[in-house]
Amino acid sequence: MTTPLSFCPHRRTARAVALSVLVALGLVATTSTALEQWDQLDEARQVRILFRLLSYDRALPEAAKDGLHLTVLSAPNHAPARANTEALQRAIERYRHDSLDPLPVTTTEVAFESLKSLERTLRESHTDLLYVTPGLGSKLPGIGAITRKLGILSITGSRRFVEHGLAVGLGRQGDRPRICVNLTALRSEGHDLPAKVLRLCQVYR
After folding, report:
1. pTM of the predicted model, to two decimals?
2. Which helix (H) or strand (E) holds 163?
3. DSSP label at 23?
4. What count of other Cβ atoms lies within 10 Å of the Cβ of residue 28?
5. Inter-axis angle of helices 79-94 and 43-53, to 10 degrees?
6. Strands 39-40 and 168-173: what pairing?
7. C-alpha 165 chain-centroid distance
8. Beta bridge partners of 134
9. pLDDT in tens, 168-183
């Protein structure tokens, strides 16, 4: 499935709007007690937050010249992964016009077979962003090695996946959305976020 979506990683005004939207969506500066509880965030809010967060990624303007490609990686025969993938696709379709400025983002879904085939698929599809769904916990070291090697930003709805090496997690604590960032993974994948955005996130180093 290929779906156009838009956002702007270039303009200061767009980045200011993105930050205000992140705050409006309920994100607040994290505290030392904020790690105690983490729940699944609905996919619609994940998509809205993700594409505003990306407008702050200082590595994306170069990659985004011809648009971005998002691959959703799912575990085969895994019901939660199937549900997560389908909900993500619906959310992307729903919010594809909720943009800051025209820039196409295409999406495809890939069922995990092996690390070797995954690397080949990501290379051939020129993937810029990889969303990892549930059921792939045992594969995280290999997946992380591939995203770092290829400079692909790894994203998930699981904080545990971020603790084990993926770069960005989108979840919920209480009634508030929460972003967690593995700073080592983020930078190893060739991406970066400014301090004012990281202050709104749970950060692992």
Report:
1. 0.82
2. helix 159-163
3. H
4. 14
5. 60
6. antiparallel
7. 13
8. none
9. 999 888 778 889 999 9
